[in-house]
Description:
The protein is an all-alpha fold.
Amino acid sequence: MRPLVNKIKPTKGFSAVLHAGLVLLLPILLFILARLGDQFIAVSFGLVLLSKWRMFAVRPRFWAAIIRANSIDMLVGASTVVFLQHSAGSFWLQLFWAAAYAGWLLLLKPRAGLLMISIQAFVGQLVGFMALFLALPNAAMAWLVVLSGLICFVSARHFFDAFEEPYSKMLAYLWAYFGAALVWVMSHWLLFYGVVSQPTLILTTVGYGLAALYYFDHSGKLSTLLRRQFVFIMIAIILVIITFSDWGDKVV
């Protein structure tokens, strides 16, 4: 059975063009507000939240489930606002982030299927951590730990729910705990490689590797050789990060 959303969402003709135009309106407005200056950042976050007004058009008892289902989209939208504000000195970089967000809204977010939902979860966690450490590099450790755990939980729950995993909630909590604990340890040595922080790089590497192993195992394609390759790549990347990092007690 085709999902209801496919029946009401226009797929061709003038209605499809109009729908795409309305979707593109949000990244265009965020780009304009970012060009106007930092004083409009609260308005930008408000627009991202306002774009999800339909979440609250149902009975309150459904709000928790609907918010969880839309959390990845809100995370990507909020992260885009951070990227736009952080790139205030470059017109073309801001245009890139606005175009990337438009691509998320039009191409990736509407897609279904295990692979596409897995990619959505991966993108959500990656941009969420990038935005977190760009926006709050000097924040109190407690805030970094709590927000890191929340990003990990939201991403993991989005991923596991697609597979109808019976222990999705427990696995999401475990990943959230791991992410929060890692950030708690590494916040003493918060290093950046360009715009990517060290915790972001490690959590992305480990998260991608574990998610790929789970995906291939679920599809019956996980061989012993493939499992060893993923484990080797994860360990190699982490060893490179640990070996070539400056482990002084500072924020770089």
